[in-house]
Specification:
Blueprint: E1 12-18, H1 22-30, E2 38-44, E3 51-55, E4 58-62, H2 64-67, E5 70-74, H3 75-83, E6 96-97, E7 100-101, E8 107-115, H4 121-129, E9 146-152, E10 155-161, H5 173-185, E11 189-195, H6 199-211, E12 216-221, H7 223-228, E13 232-233, H8 235-242, E14 246-248, H9 257-269, H10 284-297, H11 303-306, H12 311-319, H13 323-329, H14 335-353, H15 357-376, E15 377-378, H16 386-395, H17 401-441, H18 446-463, H19 466-481, H20 484-498, H21 506-511, H22 516-521, H23 529-538, H24 548-558, H25 563-581
Parallel strand pairs: 8-10, 8-11, 11-12, 12-14
Antiparallel strand pairs: 1-2, 1-5, 2-3, 3-4, 6-7, 9-10, 13-15
Amino acid sequence: MCTLEDLKEGETGVIARVKGKGAFRRRIMDMGFIPGQEITVVRRAPLQDPVEYSIMGYFVSIRRSEARLIEILEDERIERENGHIPLTQKLPADHVQNGSLKKQRWKTIQIALVGNPNAGKTTIFNCLSGLRERVGNYSGVTIDAKTAIISYKDYRLEITDLPGTYSLSSYSPEEVFVRNHILQEMPDVIVNIVDATNLERNLYLTTQLIDMDIRLVMALNMYDELQQQGRKINHQMLGNLLGFPVVPTIGKSGKGINELLDMVISMFEGKYSSERHIHINYGTEIEKSIRNIQSNIRIPENDFLSNIVSTRFLAIKLLEGDQEEISRIRQCKNYKEILSVVGEEIKKLESLTGDTAESAITDAKYGFIDGALLETTSGQLVDKRKLTQKLDAIFTHKWLGLPIFALILWLMFEATFSLGKYPEQWIGDGVSLLSSWITGLMQPGMLRDLLADGIIEGIGGVIVFLPNIVLLYLFIALMEDTGYMARVVFITDKLMHKIGLHGKSFIPMMMGFGCSVPAILATRPIEDRKDRLVTMLIIPFMSCSARLPLYVLIVSAFFPQHSGSVLFLMYVIGMVVAIATA
């Protein structure tokens, strides 16, 4: 989508969205720059900045850096979108006339789903969009931003599912990716999806989103599991404390999803009565340091940055020594003065608190979280995970864990071969019968040979191995969905470190048995760049499903009596070579 800055003199467009934040956004919208308004470029100043526009019958001049934050639809695109809006739901009849939309355009709301890994973001995304994106119970399943467009109550909702992240620091690629998406794309509303059964950990990310001064709605997901634990949350009181609505949801059943979208629209329209932007109190000294840094950032020459990024968020991240924000602040003309002030404030805080500024800020965040939960939660925790704990004691046992894992792998390959041979034989017999039928039906010639010996036998030679591939994928998916993969990471972490890898490397390596491409993409949760690259490079040594037909052919021909064990051994050899390479 183009911005107001892209329009040439005399061109007209319609405002689609106003980005930016704080005083800039309020001022520009008070001047009439609101979605749906037509705006025309009158003239540019001799030095090309500022630019004069005509809007709502009067003339106004704004800087190009401000025009860059206003998205518009050009005349040609307006006509195109009036003719068709790609929605996943059918449009209501009263919005269609003679095969095209009525003159009024649907309001577009850009929504980003943000939350911890395993909080249920992708489950809610699938529920909203009707898609079937992959979900799992370990980090790194969502490895890129996925977007779906749906219609809801005369609104066009562009929903983006972002990778799971525990914070907005610059420690892992996911954290940087999510932070940059929020700052660069500037979604209209952030839906913060939290695991209701683990609020203390999940709300840490929420506190960082609050610091960013963005419109938030919280989805209190897995609410049914919280109730099963015997606990209750006064979500309305929690929303009042946080300054934005909190909606209980159950992603897997879709309960609360409509209420969640209603709250998103309410926040977008500014109709949520209890909305307020709160500041988490970090203590007198830290607050003084934050204000001091903010005063050095808030100068007219830095409007290009302060109009996009909350200066409070910037100040906090600079006190934490965040390298991404230090790099961002270097765009400012007075960046040397800013960094000098930051260094002085960090030294002052360390001398006063006896700890790092980052630790003091983290402690204050958890203090805020503990206070909020103390006021809003009730009920005695009923532990209903006894069976899980008993199974964990077996599968992660000091001496039994690794042998059990090796046994499970052997059973997986043995079952893949022994169970797969029956449908493999049925498919082979079916292909032979079809080929014989075609041979008997047609006269000898090139066409018969092409159909019987070329197409049917050729395709049959490939699909005969399909049962083995399906079974292998089934067993891998079963280990993922039951949570056994996460336990494998735990029991193999030390072994992985000894060979120069991280415990998190094991999941991508296991995924390599299915397909190397998603396995390589799944290395993103590995924080250390060296570990991540090494894991990527050894994944091709893992025998993917594309090689399985060849393995089955070799094993069947030369080792028919011990096919399952030999197949297991071939996979183990690949793992050994991968480990040796690492």
